[in-house]
User: Fold these one by one.
Assistant:
Number 1:
Amino acid sequence: MRHLHLGKLLLVVFSLLLACTVSARKPIKTLLITGQNNHNWQVSHVVLKQILENSGRFDVDFAVSPGQGKDMSGFVLDFTPYQLVVLDYNGDSWPEETNRRFLEFVQNGGGVVIYHAADNAFSKWPEFNKICALGGWEGRNENAGPYVYWQDGKLIKDSSAGVGGSHGRQHEYVLNGRNKVHPIVKGLPVKWRHAQDELYDRMRGPGNIQDILYTAYSEKETNGSGREEPLVFTVDYGNARIFHTMLGHAGPTPEDNIAMQCTGFQVLLLRGAEWAATGKVTQKVPKDFPTETSCSLRKNYKEN
Ligand SMILES: [Zn+2]
């Protein structure tokens, strides 16, 4: 009898300990919006979910829109269950009600991650362009706002006429840190080598960058701008926490997807997403982060 009671007691204590451990880090409820993109969203949205969920920190639901040109009226989204919205969408306008609810979510301090070509979307929606700070293509030019680049230790806003958004050929390049204290980048190398990817240049918009985290030099030799381009930053938009990364052009398959397999891309996504959702970053600096001279890949989208 005594043994049985002791056994039961231990079981109860063990269960309580387990419950405490689990509740100490409840996954961040995340909504990933996709379904239309001039990119391979069929690969990117699955891979983004894997990166986020493999960390054990996020629980990702998809909102997949109807295809391009189809009836969008039923694509009305409920943001209320979520702490974080990840945008992997570049396509037809959402219904007015979804736009209204999205702005409500963001303006009430919601967390947002703008990923790669999501900043191409909705060039004619001024409020969306403020949420991105910078965007490209889709008819953008000087009317979308200044071309913002880094020079002499600060961001320059150049309002002269020109295209909004372009990139040269894909290549490996070094990211240059411009902030050492922001939680997203604290402890990460100031310079690190990104695996082969596009390097967005000549991006335009309201330019309301809050903290510029990383820039990269867009060489003329790769058909770039000859400027130091802002690629990873946070956005100044009321109470919202918005993390914008222009990295991570999707490949043809999850296995053949080098830009998203880059450890630097994945770590910044995870840290940016946690910060956007909570205002903090509790992740350690990983040992497999790229250095200035060598790339590092997580081909299975998880920490080794
Ligand atoms: Zn791309």
Note: Helices lie at 2-24, 41-54, 96-107, 126-132, 258-261, 263-278.
Number 2:
Amino acid sequence: MLQEVVEVIRKGDSSGNHMLIRLKLPSGLEIIGLPTENAYYGGEWDLGPTWNYMVLDDTPFLIDTGRYGMGRKLLDMMNAAGYSGTDLDFIVVSHGHEDHDGALDEMAKATGAKVKAHEIFDHLIRFYPEAAPSDFRRDFPASCWHCFMPETFSKKNCIEYHQARCHLEIEKIRYGDVRLSRNTQAYHVPGHSPDSLAVLVGEEILLVGDTILPDITPFPSQERSFLLVGKLLTPQYANAESIYGLRAYIKSLKKLRKIGSNYPNLIVLPAHRLFYNNHWNEIHLEKRIEELINHHLQRCGDILRILKQGPKTAREIAIEHFEESLLKGFGLLMAEREIISHCELLAASKDVISIEDSRFLATGRMNFEALIQGLEPEGNR
Ligand SMILES: [Zn+2]
Ligand SMILES: [Zn+2]
């Protein structure tokens, strides 16, 4: 189905960089796919470019803007497809990661389009110097208080982007809201990020951001981040596990499965790897969600097996669990966080407990599977 509606306007490389595509759907809806390049610091965790999409609905909009500095490139691509930035009615942010909202300020200024994002995004892009967890974090918005990148990296690469982003005026998608325009609905699907959205266009298209990706499993966030930023959020978001971490993520997958069950012919457009290794990746929503949930079940089982040898830190588990190629550069820190997300779920199912020196101890129980299977999708927060 995907390949039947894709027209390649401009060929790119084997990962989809520099490509430009048009999707023409049976209803007449047209979508332009605008991939922008990414930088990678973490060994072989390559996601490929960020796929931003321009949706030519009766209120045309852009979802995501790629990395900081990508604005010019996006506008050029729009022009090459026969449109201009001023055709946009609004820009919606799938979630507040730099590969998605990096050029947001630049694009908002260049196009005059409104910016819509989840209300948690609006809270986390702001600065709260008196609440920051350390002196160094004072120079960064709340979204960065739990970042694992070293100070030298953040100071060099992130300050300009955050300074620009924090002044954005956001039309907030609030608790319970779904409608973005007549034909378009947003769903809050936290987990990969607390502010993640999925956007349904008519009955044909589901834009899933980083919540569902082909061939790779999106990183879940961590519940412990809530300890730092929870106090900044409105009372609807009072539970860590509703917006952060693996439990939130799995609930969101189940929510998307439920939405998808109403629209059997949906084309799912991910924010990475739509095209990769010279190959189009079509996502079968139900099947992919099943695979992702099974992946996390398996990883929880693997961690418990590793902990049978005795208590270990997340880093020790990561080194044992992941291939060496994934542990290069910042890969080790990413792998460690991935393990922490799983250990948080395993602690909730009482299969592990935290002990001294940041180690996890297996309790000998195996409740995680029942916990994961029992997680119910949450309403449209
Ligand atoms: Zn992301
Ligand atoms: Zn991403």
Note: The first helix runs from residue 2 to 5.
